[in-house]
Amino acid sequence: MEIIDMDHKGNGIGKINNKVVFVPKSIPGDECEIEVIKTHKNYDIAKIKNITKKSVKRIDPLCPYYDTCGGCNISNLDYSEQLTFKENKVKNIFIKYLEIDINPRVIDSEKKLEYRNKITYHYDNKLGLISEFSGVIDIHECLLVSDKVNNLYKKIKENDLSLVKLVTIKECDNGLILSIIGKMNIDNLRDLCIEINVNDKNVYRKEFGFIVLNDIKYQVSDKSFFQINTSNISKLYNEIIRYGEFTKNDVVIDLYCGVGSISLYIAKYVKSVLGIEIVEDAIKDAKENAKINNINNVKFLCGDVSKLIDGNINGDTLIVDPPRIGIDEYSLEVINKSKINKIIYVSCDPMTLVRDIKKLDNYELCNISVVDMFPQTHHVESITVLKRI
Q: Exposed, middle or buried, 298 (CB in 10 Å: 0-12/13-18/19+)?
């Protein structure tokens, strides 16, 4: 079968007797011998048995676990082709669901490997990464994290892990934060970490973790969300500033603000910022970050956006950076009826993005940028600007 296209998740697409077949790890131009592993009414899912003719776009992935790990699923594409795939993915979704033909700015990633500041390992008789097919695969190292993280992972594996469920490592500028769900001996890990948490309780702390962006120092805790690609966060936030066209008279609301990373980054350009976030630890970090950086024109509220949005959406610009599931129905309704002039929507899932835009029918799409925060994977970050009609 010839692969003629790719779906939004990076799977190759071919046809047998006019029936669509999705083939993970294949790319347009490949000719493959395949085995159908799941049959559905309108489509099948297959796996590659043999590539009889390789696409000119295909490269050999650097990772030895590419065929079994589900992580870097498009690392068989040259990086320029990865960017083209992500641009086309967003364009196709906007055309299909909104009937809008967009031409996004495409911003690449400074790092193509070793960019992740967070990784989670699962334990199932071995500590490793989730396999694309089933279970956990044992790995020697992951190319998306630094040597420092890989070395800690190897050290952890020297211990008895029989009572461990999950292990998460966060990399900050000043060291590593280790979080464990389960039970294990940590004595041999202290020298490699600045902080260790077990079952959501802090058991060791040499110092608080921090990340510095554009001279702003952010304290990061084990539970707080922070953008995963540290080297590219400034590119993402600089796009927000560019699209915001902020003035010293602007009042900005920042929903799903996390540790206040966007709020504090834009604070010097505006009159004031109100950040809202449901995770208590993130808000603690956000308030501490404001103190650390002597930023006094930012206020943070802890709570569910849908419960706090009433009465707190009076301003000039709204920034939203929701989780992958997007914005809830009630908040969308409040936003759509508000007097906010401009919405800057930061999204990690274009499908929920277009769903939400469709409901914001008092606004029109003005600009969109695609920012590559997840090289080697099909995931894509975008920034969309909407203005009140």
A: buried
**What is the C-alpha to C-alpha distance for residues 307 and 24, in angstroms, rounded to an integer?**
41
Per-residue pLDDT of the chain (389 residues; tens, 9 = 90+): 999 999 999 999 999 999 999 999 999 999 999 999 999 999 999 999 999 999 999 999 999 999 888 789 999 999 999 999 999 999 999 999 999 999 999 999 999 999 999 999 999 999 999 987 778 999 999 999 999 999 999 999 999 999 999 999 999 999 999 999 999 999 999 999 999 999 999 999 999 999 999 999 999 888 888 899 999 999 999 999 999 999 999 999 999 999 999 999 999 999 999 999 999 989 999 999 999 999 999 999 999 999 999 999 999 999 999 999 999 999 999 999 999 999 999 999 999 999 999 999 999 999 999 999 999 999 999 999 999 99
CB 333 within 8 A of CB 308: no
DSSP string over 73-114: TTTTB-HHHHHHHHHHHHHHHHHHHH------EEE--S-SSS
Q: In Å, how far from its chain's centre is CA 376?
A: 13
Which tokens go with 129?
Answer: 């990464």
Cβ-contact 115, 109 below 8 angstroms = yes
- Contact of 138 with 109, CB cutoff 8 Å: no
Q: What DSSP string runs through 227-282?
A: -SBGGGHHHHHHHHHHHHT--TT-EEEEES-TTTHHHHHHGGGSSEEEEEES-HHH
* 382: amino acid identity, one letter: S
Q: Is 372 in contact with 348 (CB distance < 8 Å)?
A: no
3-state secondary structure of 127: strand
> Whole-prediction pTM value?
0.94
Q: From CA 251, how far away is CA 298, in angstroms rounded?
A: 10
Which residues, including other chains, have CB under 8 Å from residue 256's CB and lie 6 or more apart? 276, 277, 305, 320, 321, 322, 323
